[in-house]
## 1
Amino acid sequence: EKLLAWLSPLEPQKRHQDIKNSRLENTGKWILQSDQFQEWIKGQSKSESNQVLGCYGEPGVGKTVIASIVIDYISANLIRQRTSDVYLYCDYRDRREQNLVHIIGSFVKQLVLQFISSGTRLPQSIHDH
């Protein structure tokens, strides 16, 4: 617990759960069926610029909800042994907490949590710090 708190105060999993709980059933499912998403998820994009799936728009149009749907899809369908997923919801209203150190720490924290949930113990040298 101390290690996780030290890594970052950001809690993307809690934020994700809150967003997920606020979604209406079948909201945004269209994104998962779109040709652009299917090409991206299968790694079949012919353009280097399509290696990143972008979602942009004005505040309040649903980007966060769409991102949460994609995160759920990846978590449920693409996680294999020796693969991890990390994410962060950025919010312009929380610029102070969302600095580079906290963001990178959040990614490391998520990897540590996934490592622990796999049943593997962290090395003692990590606990000692």
Note: The two ends are 13 Å apart (CA to CA).
## 2
Amino acid sequence: MAKLEDLPLEVLEQILLLLDPVDVAQFSQTCSAYHSVLYGDPEDQHLWRELYLRQPFDDPRQCYTPLGRPLQDIDWKSKLQRIIRARGILTKVSACRPEERCAVLQTLIDFVTNVPPVTHPDVIELSMNHVWATAMLRGSTLIEHEEWELSPEERQLRARLHTYFGLTPRDFQHQNRTSSRAFVYAMRNYKYDNDFGPFMMDGSGRVNWVHLRVIHHVMSMHIVPETEETTSAEFNLFPMSMPWTQSIIPNGIDLDAEQDWAGVTGKWQCSFCFVDHRELLVYNNFNTSDTEPLRTEIFEDPDFVEVFRSIYVELRVLGVEEDPEHPGRPRINFGGSLEGHAVFVGYVKVTPDNQIRWHFTSGEQGNAIWSSEGVQVGNVRSKFGILGSWTTVLHDRHDPVGPFWLWKVGEADAATTA
């Protein structure tokens, strides 16, 4: 009677490719010979490559980084092992060891940001990574559980993944909406230390994803209607959810050779929120202290009003400045107009943590009044757009603050780009 070990290696490999990666790992532990088949030659990854490509994921060879470059140096074995471990944690969060929590979250972030680009804004080209991650996250408590105390790094990683994912059923709970508004409208969260935007308070210019997530929450609740269907849905598909985080890079375009690598030129919708200035000052105790408790009950008042408005602007590139820290991604200086009148002036540049930062001032009759700081969510040129905060250019103690969402709705007219 033929035994398993009598099978030709090629036949054995074909059998292994029919198994789940967890089963393959367990099979390798049955004897040293089988362990050698999987792990004997670290330079030979053909079996791991084929096993990876059998999974419901994007082909990494077709994937781009968040800054719009083809993914390089693929370690098929390590990549698959990390994802399968993350899958196990998504299924059973309590199985996550304290020392691996950040690694699991980072694996999932890498998984949903290293994806194939969309080739045209009007074409649906779903990322298989996004389909898989969305299905797994909506059935998991990973981005919202309270099973353990989070480290500062875990809080940042989890908030980033939550922002990419979109809204969860818990985001519709009134106490959570109040908590997000309380953070967004707290004047103490806007200082010169973080450039009055969603950045870390250490002056590094790195993104504060905890801040960006609450901005996302506040703005999303004006986009997604609060109905029985949306509040009970495990996943709401809308323009600030995961499928919109893919880059839009037409075929044949090399962003390293493009002056407008960030896709600035075009027609944009800028939506913003604000509250009554008197209520804002009362809530912040007139911004006289960073330690006094804030009066969050203001947001629970039935008469509380948060205004949501939108304007449409056309942006165009004015010039670029080379960035030695980020070759191929120069700082882009841009201007914008509303109904033919210049109202926007700003720039786009890459942050020290390789995120895409937008800064612009706006006003009337050539006078800058408002200053805005934002971050491109997802990958370069994504339809998700930019989330951030606005205040005045003066940055006085009692100046108003609020969130905004800037997203591209069309290409520029020929006259605009001329």
Note: Residues 76-91 form the longest helix (16 residues).
## 3
Amino acid sequence: MPILNDTTAVDTIDIADLPTGIPCYPRDDLQRRLLRKLDLRMSMILVLYTLNLVSLNNARLQGFEKDLHLQGQQYATTLSILYVGYIIMQVPGNMFLHWLERPAVFIPSCMIVWGTISALTGLSTLFDPSYSGAVVARFFLGFAEAPFFPGAVFLVSGWYKRDEVALRIALVSCGSCLSSAFGSLFASAILHGMQDKLGQAAWRWLFYIEGGITILVAICAMFILPDLPHNTRWLTPEERALAISRLADDGYGKVDELRKRTTTQGLWDAVSDWKVWWFAVAIMFQLVGQSFFIYFPTLCATLGYDTTVTLLLCAPPWVFAGMVAFALTWYSDKKQRRYKYFVVSNGLAALGFIMSISTMNKAARYVSLFLMTQVLAGSLVLWGWISNTFIREPAKQAVAIALINALGQIGNVVGSYVWPSNWGPTYRYSYVVCFAALVVSTGMFGGMYMYLKHLNEQIERNERDAKDIKELRDPIGFRYVV
């Protein structure tokens, strides 16, 4: 097995060496067939993402805090410890994924561990119904979940062109919308019908059932998800050649240079690039602004309805967010613009915060939840932008995506403490914190937008002034997507 810094361990693929005598289709037709096949198989990530149904907020509404005797900030710590596991494991997870080059094995394997720990969470807290038992279970759950999102983004980026990637990230990530929406419906059914079944509290059945389903689906995903273009077994030689050449034409450079940097070199490339750290800090503030995600059922509960109605009311805002995400990422890919659409989404979320700060009217506050949840659309455009920025260096990209997301999770840790129960039911101070965080993140991403525009102007000048094409550092026609 190759070692991490073995520069000779990976063979490159020369399109000219692919077998001859295979059926030949017009490139456009073959590309449509390839994308259709990829999209269908990548949709398995959406299913896996959707299975993240269990929200501690759902369990909270049916006695989680009471049964485990949580007091003060202990519930917030139980939430935030999940992200500590995220932070620790994301970079090593994506480095290992880049080295292993088998996303179809690695990502579902993480999901199997995730599902097992989720199921055991209900069981472990049964034998140790305490704060410490819940914290330990949540920490290891975060450890297992950590490689999933950056791994999925890296997998998508390894197949799709820059004008395709944001929509595809939205397609595979809209599972978070489905999870938030239908997870509440799922939880409502279980919390309503499973109380005291086999002597178990209904919230424990949430963990048992979700964990079991996740394990079964993850096993199926191993046979459906693709690996990378050079080693996916179910591609025809013609499709493999097209998949590789598409990426080369899109700014990766020469085909034989696609993967020449090792995982260890990619780590150094990422940590030595200030853009990675700038994106990470900006994402951190963005996630503080989005911290209402993890308290969403609690915010719906401020409308004054019972548990079942509250969970049902959680669904429509997230369905709306998914629809906006599809529209915004599709338009962003079409126009090859990222930052401006991200600003629009953050602006609408800020308007939602202002509405919730200003009134306790039920209708107005429920409308504000729709405006707030659509900020997810801007976040998916943002991840398309981050992926595009590092797209020419796969080893660096793998580490950069994981490092940015890992450090950004500090925002979720902080955000877990932004919604103390004594600030409810108005949560005005919480909304003010979220508003301020979105302002900071929007400003920081604006700085990156200006810098990348400057780089594009510099690349254009270099192309115009170059006497020899070999003098150019960047492929002809390459521009950063801004």
Note: Residues 135 and 409 are 17 Å apart (CA to CA).
